[in-house]
Specification:
18% helix, 16 strands, alpha+beta
């Protein structure tokens, strides 16, 4: 996968010299972990990686075509082969127009793009201390991806020290332009609710200058944040899809898709979750349909 703007992110595995903590120094250990174990990429210009495996001149969408958006967190990009099988075989995701991915690295993104014949844009947030590999979000589409961008979100996650970034691109869907964001907010205990709202406010401010319809998709690690996007003028077609992941033993609805300037069809199920993810991840893919902007 070709890199742009900044040095490649295939970096040597990071290790931590921190030993076991006694109860009396748990807080100190947490501070050390937060400040020392994550290598964050905070430059808004990169690194970013682009690849083009799709047809250079895709067919124009039919007048009654619907835009199919999918989001999927592929847990540290470990089981890419199973994710590929799922994307190929699940009826709900066939013919998707955009796929927002989370917890990706360069090899995983490239493999999916190559095997599926897609264009891809990948932006790592950091080298994650758990995997020692790049960790970030990607956008895949059979349509051209233009105007790539990176949105650095404030507040590092407690424990990992990872400071997240969202990836942005405009999908050229025939004659229509749709700006798409893929993002992954910290785990439920990774930041406070106020910090999560601050992160979303930065993303929404970036999207506010778009003259095109906007789709925001990803792993929000919270359902409550949906209220903030709705207050910002976004529709929430995946509000009632049900459990998309689990936190310990609790089912959670945390993977969602929001849109502004696009309407969901009323004559069919407009959104859903793929119940059987073939063991590809600890998350289930979520999908939704939209009418053409015109």
């Amino acid at each position: 996968m070709a890199a742009s703007s900044a040095p490649p992110t295939s970096l040597t595995t990071l290790t931590s010299a921190l030993g076991r903590s006694r109860v009396g120094v748990v807080f100190l250990a947490a501070v050390l972990v937060t400040s020392c174990t994550a290598l964050n990429y905070l430059d808004p210009s990169g690194p970013s990686y682009e690849e083009r495996f799709a047809a250079t001149s895709p067919p124009t969408p039919a007048p009654d075509a619907r835009f199919l958006a999918v989001t999927f967190n592929i847990a540290y990009a470990v089981k890419i082969d199973l994710a590929l099988e799922l994307l190929r075989e699940s009826p709900s995701m066939q013919g998707f127009d955009v796929l927002a991915l989370q917890e990706m690295d360069v090899p995983g993104t490239e493999q999916l793009a190559r095997e599926l014949g897609m264009n891809a844009l990948y932006v790592p947030s950091a080298v994650h201390p758990k995997s020692g590999r790049d960790f970030g979000c990607a956008i895949l589409s059979p349509w051209p991806l233009v105007e790539p961008g990176k949105v650095v979100l404030p507040v590092a996650g407690f424990g990992s020290g990872v400071q997240r970034s969202a990836v942005r691109a405009t999908v050229l869907w025939g004659e229509d332009r749709i700006r798409v964001y893929s993002l992954h907010l910290p785990s439920p205990l990774g930041v406070t609710g106020a910090a999560r709202r601050q992160q979303l406010a930065v993303l929404l401010a970036d999207a506010a200058d778009s003259g095109d319809p906007v789709v925001i998709a990803g792993d929000f690690n919270s359902k409550d944040v949906g209220k903030q996007l709705v207050a910002g003028g976004y529709s929430w077609p995946t509000r009632d899809v049900g459990t998309t992941s689990k936190f310990f033993f609790f089912g959670m609805s945390i993977d969602h898709i929001f849109a502004k300037g696009l309407a969901s069809p009323a004559d069919t199920a407009a959104a859903g979750v793929v119940q059987d993810n073939l063991g590809a991840s600890d998350h289930r893919p979520v999908w939704t349909l939209f009418h053409a902007p015109r």
